[in-house]
Design a protein that fits this description.
Helices cover 47% and strands 10% of the residues. The protein is of the alpha+beta class. Strands 1-2-3-4-5-6 form a 6-stranded mixed sheet, covered by helices on one side. A hairpin with a 5-residue loop joins β1 and β2.
């Protein structure tokens, strides 16, 4: 059998070749993994897996080798230069494997990936969201060791975010995630002192103006939801007429259902319970008690991590009963689920369209929760009860709702004037 061109096979059957782009490109996967050693630099090799993945390694001592990188990411000349650098350090007495262990333990990105991420995903409800923030929100830290993250580095990051127009409240939330990460690094011995001991959060208004629906706006929102429902029903009826004329299978008739889709019941339930979006989307039918007329927000979905019970008023109770009995509800487990049976992550597209239809500006889904709280305060409900219904972890968070009804307080002050 003719030998492959340019490949050298030594007496001990070790495969060797001069690593070039052409030579590496000729390597093909076989039934078992195999290795080809560089004829130009002692210790440099490439390992070929049956899957076709090829990886450069450097064997710098008997039984000791370090990974350099995949062949689809670096070219042979780069692999050779990296290998030479590793060998130079080894000849000076530095063990490459031990050095990589130190760097892995000290590097921010490696600590995040290898140590903190597994803890986040198993310990925190918002673990995935927190990890995404730490990995995407702080690109400046990726190449730094943990000890190189100084108060000055954090301050430069903060000033850059401010100049980008990011709100101070959001910056503080991101910094809180980083603070928690570095505090864990200190607890686990990967960092001596957290830089946040000398970093203070951005100063923000402790009593910001809270957006909520006025009586007129709520009326317009409810009308827009009804208009949207009517439009969806008309569209379905038109589509079925078209399909019937061509002998196609018809879609389910929306005219026979209480709700055209999920948006109206989700919005009205939020208005009547003050649920956070995550709590709403994580709500399960087993958490709803029609007999006791309440729902339970379990600790796993609650932001504060504590279970709470919310009474259902007549409208909320009627909505849930109608929605549960409606044909086509996608999940027997979750109250609001998509076509795959899994809970929604958001309803942004349909929500923004109905706000536009209602001509309501500067209003978020979370402001439905503010509306719920403001209506309670204006109805004379004490703040501690409001706190319990909202599931606030501390009373200070509820105090801001005391400022939601200026006309309500103005009426109280007006009583001081004698008639």
């Amino acid at each position: 059998m003719e030998k492959p061109e340019s490949r050298i096979v030594s007496k001990d059957s070790t495969r060797r070749d001069n690593f070039t782009n052409t030579a590496v490109g000729r390597l093909k996967p076989e039934a078992s993994p195999y290795e080809v050693w560089d004829a130009g630099l002692m210790g440099l090799l490439i390992r070929v897996q049956p899957s076709g993945v090829m990886t450069y390694y450097l064997q710098y001592a008997r039984g000791k080798r370090v990974r350099i990188g995949r062949a689809d990411a670096i070219v042979p000349t780069q692999a050779r230069e990296i290998a030479k650098g590793i060998l130079a350090e080894h000849y000076k007495g530095e063990d490459p494997i031990e050095k990589r262990k130190r760097v892995r333990a000290e590097n921010y990105l490696q600590f995040l990936e290898d140590t903190y991420k597994p803890w986040l995903l198993t310990s925190l409800r918002r673990g995935k969201e927190t990890y995404d923030n730490l990995s995407k929100g702080f690109p400046e830290l990726h190449s730094l060791s943990l000890s190189e993250i100084t108060p000055l580095v954090i301050e430069k990051w903060r000033q850059r975010r401010i100049t980008q127009g990011i709100s101070k409240a959001r910056i503080n939330r991101q910094m809180n995630d980083l603070r928690a990460c570095l505090n864990r690094a200190v607890q686990w011995g990967a960092l001596k002192v957290s830089p946040f001991e000398k970093v203070k959060p951005c100063k923000i208004d402790s009593s910001p103006k809270v957006r909520y629906l006025s009586t007129k706006e709520e009326t317009k929102l409810r009308q827009a939801l009804d208009e949207r429902e009517a439009t969806l029903r008309e569209s379905r009826q038109s589509a079925n007429q078209w399909r019937a004329e061509r002998g196609y299978e018809l879609y389910a008739e929306l005219s026979e259902r209480d709700f055209a889709d999920h948006l109206k019941p989700a919005v009205l339930l939020s208005l009547n319970t003050g649920l956070r979006a995550g709590e709403l989307f994580g709500l399960k039918w087993c958490d709803v008690s029609f007999e006791q007329k309440n729902m339970t927000v379990v600790a796993e979905t609650a932001k504060a991590g504590k279970t709470r019970h919310i009474p259902l008023n007549d409208e909320a109770l009627a909505i849930l009963k109608q929605w549960k009995q409606q044909p086509g509800v996608k999940s027997a487990q979750y109250v609001f689920a998509g076509s795959n049976g899994k809970p929604f992550q958001d309803m942004r597209t349909s929500w923004e369209r109905v706000l536009k239809l209602a001509e309501i500006d500067n209003f978020r889904w979370h402001d439905l929760r503010h509306t719920f709280a403001s209506k309670l305060v204006m109805a004379g409900v004490d703040l501690n009860t409001v706190r319990e219904l909202l599931g606030h972890s501390n009373y200070a968070m509820t105090l801001r709702y005391a400022h939601l009804a200026p006309e309500h307080k103005a009426l109280a002050v007006s009583k001081l004037v004698s008639s």
